[in-house]
Design a protein that fits this description.
CATH superfamily of the largest domain: NAD(P)-binding Rossmann-like Domain
Shape: globular
Structural class: alpha/beta
CATH class of the largest domain: Alpha Beta
Radius of gyration: 19 Å
Number of strands: 13
CATH topology of the largest domain: Rossmann fold
């Protein structure tokens, strides 16, 4: 089946970390007519070759009108839109508008894994999946698990590596495997998924550039930074407790990170996709862990000199 069946593609959340790269990949592919749906008061700017439609996210009829005539809706929402459960509104509007295929805002660890699905922040994603399954006779869906954002998570320290301070926090001694994907690879994977409905419709697709342990990554960071790093330790159980404590105190961002780290670095493997990935089948080339670390160190050096 060719992707000409799915030519009109609309992206929601095109200004976010993953959304920007998904938008770039879609715009680089001449087989798609690409539209960006954004909130009416958005100050975000988009490439000139993207059609932009602004709507009131609280008005389902307005969203339905914007989605009419679209073949595929891709949600890359995050932040407040995620907490407002915008995906649920978008799915209902997509069904009513006759959209053929909905890709919800997953782009994380395996939300089907009990270690990850038990995190409070994941409930919105789970509700979206249930709603899509309920409407499966009327609209197809694809769930995309990417693991952590490899480049983003190295650059800002989210994955536990502080490149500027040459310090790492190892979870459970850094011995458990996680899978992660760079943002450009996520963009390419989304475009490839739409080109391969025979492989991806109504399925969960696992994508990863690299699967590795923190210990393996640390050895490469020390190699490319040319220095020994300071190592801190925490257990994933303590990270889980810290996450709950932070949320109880109202520090949602810190709490979210504590919960996420406890899930992805635990031995239960909520973000370990070894043997499950579809990169080869979809023709999405992978970035090696060594390349990702080397480039992260180079970006850090370049930023330090500016």
């Amino acid at each position: 089946m060719s992707s000409t069946t799915y030519k009109n593609v609309i992206l929601v959340g095109g200004a976010g970390d993953a959304g920007k790269h998904i938008l770039n990949a879609l715009l680089a592919d001449s087989s798609f007519n690409v539209t960006v749906l954004t909130r009416i008061d958005s100050k975000s700017t988009f490439p000139s070759n993207a059609k932009v439609v602004k709507v009131d996210y609280k008005d389902k009829n307005e969203i339905k009108k914007a989605l009419t005539g679209q073949d595929v809706v891709i949600s890359a929402i995050g932040g407040s839109a995620h907490f407002e459960k915008l995906d649920l509104t978008l799915i209902e509007a997509s069904v009513e508008a006759g959209v053929k295929w909905y890709i919800p805002s997953e782009f994380t660890a395996d939300t089907n894994h009990p270690r990850f699905s038990s995190i409070p922040f994941v409930s919105g994603k789970l509700e979206a999946i249930e709603l899509l399954k309920k409407h499966q006779s009327r609209i197809a869906h694809t769930l995309i698990s990417t693991g952590g954002f490899l480049d983003w998570g190295f650059d800002n320290g989210f994955l536990g590596f502080d490149i500027s301070k040459h310090t790492v926090t190892l979870y459970d001694e850094g011995k458990n495997y996680i899978s992660a994907t760079t943002l450009p690879s996520i963009g390419k994977a989304v475009a490839a998924i739409i080109h391969h409905p025979e492989l991806t419709l109504n399925k969960r697709i696992y994508i990863a550039d690299a699967s590795f342990t923190q210990q393996q990554a640390l050895a490469l960071f020390e190699k490319y930074s040319g220095t020994k790093w300071t190592v801190k330790h925490i257990t994933t159980e303590d990270s889980l407790k810290q996450g709950a404590d932070s949320v109880a105190k109202g520090d949602i961002v810190k709490g979210y990170r504590g919960y996420i780290m406890s899930a992805i670095y635990s031995e239960q493997g909520a973000s370990d996709f070894r043997g499950k990935t579809s990169n080869d089948a979809l023709g999405v080339k992978t970035v090696s862990l060594e390349q990702a670390v080397k480039e992260a160190v180079e970006r850090n050096k370049a930023n330090a000199t500016h």
